[in-house]
Specification:
With 267 residues, the protein is mostly helical. The chain has one domain. Helix content is 66%, strand content 0%. It is built from 13 helices and no strands. It has helices at 3-8, 18-28, 51-70, 78-90, 95-108, 115-125, 130-144, 152-165, 169-184, 196-207, 215-228, 231-237, 244-266. Helix 2 crosses helix 3, helix 3 (51-70) packs antiparallel against helix 6 (115-125) and helix 3 packs parallel to helix 7. The longest helix has 23 residues, at 244-266.
Length: 267
């Protein structure tokens, strides 16, 4: 049975305590106060990693923090709400899941939202699995770019989240550049009337390499990104099954960027 099936089926043995559990419980209309407790150092008591618990933590953290980031520039725009709904649509959430996700989004917008507690618990629940934490940050960056601009307050907040998750500032800058390129990169040189040079520049940025990097360095970067975004690997680490389409689209964008750069170098 999936993590969501266990929730709606009443099998709460794996369920979260802490702020993530409280928010998810409120969104579902359940009381999870007797769920898994969080120790003084932020580590969950239990018997090691639990797939369903990680998946529920990812779901709760993604949509609540997305709401908090959306409000960072002073107001939640229609574009940002639409972006949140588009993520839900990509996940093919059913009506109940969508309602819960929007409730979490709205909780994240609240003045009493404790970002530090949420991120600290989320990191602990994920057992510091860097590829899973990076995927979380990428989704937030995509949401922040919903209106086409990463506002200063949003950037500062996301940098703070990134630091709490254990990423360096350089890593955050590289990830932000990659996400920005992904938003506008299609891999189709006839799409949007973009000049070939502009598309090529976006492809290099998406891959995180420079034009003067060797072919070997290019291939290494491509393989690393494909491994980090491989849907099956992310699902195995705790990405909710509903997000597999998002991960798949990312691998397609990475592959398209690599093919474009490789074709240009072979010309």
């Amino acid at each position: 049975m999936s993590w969501w099936g266990k929730i709606v089926g009443g099998a709460f043995g794996f369920m979260l305590g802490g702020p993530l559990g409280a928010m998810l419980g409120a969104a579902l209309g359940h009381n999870f106060d007797k769920g898994l407790k969080i120790s003084a150092d932020g580590a969950p008591f239990g018997h090691g990693p639990d797939q369903e618990r990680i998946q529920s933590a990812f779901f709760a953290a993604t949509f609540s923090v997305m709401g908090h980031v959306a409000k960072a520039d002073g107001r939640v725009s229609e574009d940002e709400i639409a972006m949140a709904r588009s993520v839900m649509a990509e996940m093919s959430l059913d009506p109940t899941q969508t309602r819960v996700a929007m409730d979490l989004f709205n909780q994240g917008k609240g003045d009493d939202f404790d970002l530090d507690a949420v991120i600290t618990q989320f990191k602990s629940e994920c057992h510091r699995r860097s590829t899973l934490l990076q995927m979380f940050l990428e989704i937030l960056l995509h949401a922040a770019y919903a209106d086409g601009v990463l506002h200063r307050n949003e950037a500062a907040l996301l940098k703070r989240i990134s630091s709490t998750l254990g990423f360096s500032e350089a890593h955050f800058r590289q990830l932000e550049a990659m996400v920005r390129a992904q938003r506008f990169f299609t891999g189709d040189q006839n799409a949007g009337g973009k000049p070939p040079e502009e598309l090529l520049a976006e492809a290099y940025t998406l891959l995180g390499v420079q034009r003067d990097d060797s072919d070997a360095e290019l291939k290494k970067a491509y393989r690393r990104l494909m491994s980090q975004h491989h849907p099956d690997k992310l699902i195995a680490k705790g990405l909710p099954e509903e997000m597999i389409k998002i991960a798949t689209e990312k691998t397609q964008e990475i592959k398209a960027a690599y093919e474009l750069v490789k074709k240009h170098r072979e010309a």
